[in-house]
Amino acid sequence: MAKAVVIGANGFIGSHLVDGLSAAGHEVRAFDRYSSRRPTFHSPDAEVRVGEFLSRSDIDSAVQGQDHVFHFLSTTTPATAESDPTLDIRTNLAQSVELLESCAAAGVKHVYFASTGGAIYGQQGKGEYSEDDRTLPISPYAIGKLAIERYLGYFKATHGVDSTIFRISNPYGTRQHPNKKQGLIPIALRQILSGKPVMRFGDGSMVRDYVYVEDLVDMIVPMVGRQTVYDLYNLGSGAGHSVAGVLDSLRRVTGIDFDIEERPTPPTFVDKVVLDTSRYRTEFGDQPLTSLDDGIRKTFEEMKEETGA
Questions:
Q1: Distance CA 167, CA 275 (A)
Q2: Of 184, 234, 269, 293, which is least surrounded by CB within 10 A?
Q3: pLDDT > 90 fraction of the chain, expressed in percent and rounded
Q4: Residue (of 19, 53, 68, 184) closest to 118 by Cα position
Q5: Domain identity same for 118 and 258
Q6: Entry pTM
């Protein structure tokens, strides 16, 4: 088993990843700000390391002595990156490069990076996208993710730091933070619980690949410390759901018939993105996946408990 640090350990995916890595027997260091919340992961064995991603000294300390680094933190969301592209460049991109410099100096063996499997492929009109397809991002968030992917290649060539890129579809599930205004499902559930209309971009025909967060972590953990065939993998359910279909699922699960507030679709949104996950499945096998209704139900139950609804 290895020593692994999760950068962004108190985030949505990061907290589940801490639990998954710990359960697999790895020695986990959980790095995050923990500015307003206690750790959301459940593992009692994880080492809580408080620090700022924007502090080079904190990052240097976090990666010291670690075999694997999981870069699962972003300083921006798609919305904040679009409202201020330079913010993504100045903080997310620049600090990710500094993180890789720290990894190289500390002798880290492997970096695992959470990229995006949606907007990075852009508007190509395909039914599904494989890792061999072109990357044509037009949103600042996805452009930044692709730049970090390229820097991973640079650090492998110049410093020998191996890396694996996960192009993740649309993750959802428990511990997701609806107040971050990222993710249709948590935002819609929060609106439903508040008795407010649910905002929908366009006519509801946009299609996305939704993957339940625990399924996602179950895909990642078996890859850790293993010599894989590729350094890039699409991770998702491999199935598409329209926005209208998701809203129908929300009605079934919650039993609430909510109103819809339609907004114009932003020009950087892609009409349809479904990931071809055959590369992963060929190497690691098929995995049972949580249905959309069941995943939404688990998310809804947690949110009701938190809000006392």
A1: 9
A2: 293
A3: 89
A4: 184
A5: no
A6: 0.95
Q: Quick one: which of 90, 11, 24 has its CA closest to 3?
A: 24
CA end-to-end distance (rounded Å), the chain: 42
Sequence-separated (6 or more) residues with CB below 8 Å from residue 19: 41, 42, 43, 217
Domain membership of residue 271 as a residue range: 173-209+239-307
Indicate whether 298 pLDDT > 70.
yes
Q: What is the pLDDT of residues 178-217, one digit of tens each?
A: 567 778 999 999 999 999 999 999 999 999 999 999 999 9
Is the same domain home to 224 and 285? no
Query: Which is it for strands 27-32 and 3-7: parallel, antiparallel or unpaired?
Result: parallel
d(CA 55, CA 58): 5
What gap in Å lies between CA 238 and CA 295, rounded to an integer? 16
Tokens representing 175?
Answer: 């511990």
Q: For residue 84, give the amino acid letter.
A: D
Number of domains the chain is built from:
2
pLDDT tens per residue across span 220-244: 999 999 999 999 999 999 999 999 9
d(CA 219, CA 16): 12
Amino acid identity, position 244:
A
Place of tokens 């397809």: 133
The DSSP annotation for 126-183 comes to -SSB-TTSPP---SHHHHHHHHHHHHHHHHHHHH--EEEEEEE-EEE-TT--GGG---
Q: Do residues 52 and 155 both lie within one domain? A: yes
Per-residue pLDDT at 198: 95
- Same domain? For 215 and 291 the reply is no
